[in-house]
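Shapes recur. Our protein:

. . .
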Amino acid sequence: MKRQTRRKRTSERLLEIFQAYLLNHAHGLFSSLGRLSRAPVTSSMTILVLAVAIALAGCFYIVVANIQQLTGNLQASNQMSLFLKDHVNESAGQKLADELAQHQRIENIKFIGKKQAMEEFKANSGFGEALNALESNPLPNVIQVLPKDVLDNREALDALMAEFKQMPQVDFVQVDMQWVERLQAIMRIAGRGVTLVGVLLGFAVTFITGNTIRLELHNRQDEVFISKLVGATHAFIQRPFLYTGFWLGFIAGFSAWLIITVMLLIVETPVEKLSGLYNSSFQLLYLSFSEFILLLMMASGLAVLGSWAVLHYQLRQLKPQ
């Protein structure tokens, strides 16, 4: 009985401590939000600056994401054209296309016979009447090949071209390799640019938040002195300031998401019209729900990090007189 009573008292004591811990943090969380609301002009200016910095990084990211989507759609225009030799008839060419369709590094295959090629050339070239004067069809049978991961693996593309050139039915292979190289280089530069811009703006968010918390700590210096005199630990003193930094980052992250979304909504209609002029089904990508949550987490985390760094240094310098 005594053991059961002790265990019960111990569990009740632990529960009380846990509840007190939660209440303490909840008080710090909402009291810090109240302090921000009592200085609306200063808080709004800080949040706006943070939101613009975060939105810039987010805009660079979403622009590159849309470009990557566009390049994914443009892969179809980077097909290899396998021009077959004159002695290869349409049935043999179709059979070869069916065999190539099973290739693990080929995404799509299209066979174009001589007759179909001539009809398309007449329709698109504007020389229909002149072409009718030809006694025979000079165009070869063609197999159009769309390789997989053409923008990511140049070595695999070279190997695939060499493999096609060795086929006895193939006369020559045509592909715009320079276009692929340029697009690969542009995408690499864009990806690194997004990373660099994100890092720089992340530092900006950290420093801006840290400076704001430093000013807040200076304004509440007497309160900190009194807390130290009664034995409060640095962790206890830091808590409301860290929550202030959290709210600054969280609200700024949400505001940045709004800015990005509004900007995309503004340009969505012109982009769709431009896409329609090129007979494309391109649609703007927005931040997904997971990316939105990640944006809030990163903004809040950077703000808390900046707040903690300033508090860790400043509290050691502040000593009661």
Summary: The chain has a mean pLDDT of 80. The chain is about 75% helix and 5% strand.
